């Protein structure tokens, strides 16, 4: 397709209000308004998130259009996160996207949030940038999801393994909370782990058949370990914080990659990718690189700006849907829960 397709994308699934403008597969702007209000509660408060989205969405969209030097009348479509996510937060983005698309009389493209994380690998920042070839295996890890996905095409994705309880991101955040670290805790664990010994403390690696994960037992293991040590020495956590973080992060990342490696080998896939908020974890990124070097595979790791929730990933997913004619209708509603497989059928 020779002519540029200008697409506005909106992301509002959780606590980031984001808008982006894309020209085909290139990002012209990607504006994110982070909600600081949740920090004092140690987690996202859905009602507060919805109110913050209402406050942020108009200025964020205006800024995205301004930075892209695009007028709204030049847009060819509006993509938005239909789900999964917090219902109230999704409603804000959905309502705004519908209103704008209707006013401009252009197509509306509902996007699956987790598909979009995977599709972030296809945002082209340079003309010679390498993107994964199909099929490839992607480990998507975030605060709410942990999945191993066989990606056959932009519109054909198969979940081959997933967590049966808690997500990896939640396991890191909850561990951080137990240790008294600020929210969101995952980045703090990653930072502190760099100064610690990853082998000083041993936590039990969960044993789940196949390519599925479980993190609830690992969280409980850490909790009981810290309670016992703290009862013996009240200063234990403070004194050993770096080592505790390093050891816990080590078992989480090793567990994640062991299943990913097994799945990629089983499906005879030689290209492996990371996606989702936890793909920003420095240990996970470096370990995947080493794994692929050892295996003779090719690793694809997203730029830091596309790891956490952002509208650019919604835009690239919407762009590929637009090319295939997968557009939505005015009757589409937000979906708080939405399986990845079959989301376009």
In summary, what is this structure?
With 345 residues, this protein is an alpha/beta fold. Helix content is 41%, strand content 19%. The chain has helices spanning 46-68, 87-104, 113-119, 168-178, 186-193, 216-232, 236-266, 282-295, 311-323; strands spanning 6-11, 16-23, 26-34, 77-83, 108-112, 136-141, 146-153, 156-162, 271-275, 298-300.
Question: Which secondary structure elements does this structure contain, and how are they paired or packed?
Answer:
Elements: E1 6-11, E2 16-23, E3 26-34, H1 46-68, E4 77-83, H2 87-104, E5 108-112, H3 113-119, E6 136-141, E7 146-153, E8 156-162, H4 168-178, H5 186-193, H6 216-232, H7 236-266, E9 271-275, H8 282-295, E10 298-300, H9 311-323
Parallel strand pairs: 1-4, 4-5, 6-9, 9-10
Antiparallel strand pairs: 1-2, 2-3, 6-7, 7-8
Helix pairs in contact: 1-2, 3-9, 4-6, 4-7, 5-7, 7-8
């Amino acid at each position: 397709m020779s002519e540029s397709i200008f697409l506005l994308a909106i992301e509002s699934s959780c606590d980031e209000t984001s808008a982006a403008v894309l020209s085909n597969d290139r990002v012209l702007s990607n504006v994110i308004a982070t909600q600081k209000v949740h920090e004092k509660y140690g987690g996202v408060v859905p009602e507060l998130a919805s109110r913050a989205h209402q406050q942020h969405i108009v200025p964020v969209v205006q800024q995205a259009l301004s930075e892209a030097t695009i007028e709204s009348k030049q847009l060819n479509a509006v993509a938005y996160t239909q789900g999964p996510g917090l219902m109230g937060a999704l409603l804000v983005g959905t309502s705004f996207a519908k209103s704008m698309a209707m006013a401009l009389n252009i197509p509306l493209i509902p996007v699956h949030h987790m598909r979009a994380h995977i599709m972030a690998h296809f945002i082209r920042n340079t003309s010679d940038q390498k993107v994964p070839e199909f099929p490839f295996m992607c480990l998507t890890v975030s605060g709410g999801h942990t999945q191993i996905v066989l990606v056959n095409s932009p519109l054909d994705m198969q979940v081959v393994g997933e967590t049966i309880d808690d997500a990896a991101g939640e396991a890191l955040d909850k561990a951080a909370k137990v240790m008294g670290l600020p929210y969101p805790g995952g980045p703090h664990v990653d930072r502190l782990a760099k100064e610690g010994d990853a082998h000083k403390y041993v936590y039990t690696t969960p044993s789940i058949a196949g390519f599925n994960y479980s993190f609830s037992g690992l969280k409980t293991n850490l909790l009981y370990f810290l309670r016992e040590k703290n009862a013996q020495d009240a200063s234990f956590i403070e004194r050993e914080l770096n080592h505790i973080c390093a050891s816990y992060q080590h078992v989480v990342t090793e567990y994640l990659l062991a299943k990913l490696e097994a799945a990629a080998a089983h499906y005879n896939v030689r290209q492996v990718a990371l996606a989702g908020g936890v793909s920003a974890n420095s240990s996970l990124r470096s370990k995947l690189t080493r794994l692929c070097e050892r295996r003779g595979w090719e690793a694809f790791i997203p730029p830091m700006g596309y790891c956490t929730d952002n509208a650019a990933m919604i835009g690239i997913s919407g762009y590929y849907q637009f090319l295939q004619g997968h557009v939505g209708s005015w009757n589409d509603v937000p979906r708080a829960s939405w399986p990845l497989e079959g989301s376009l059928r």
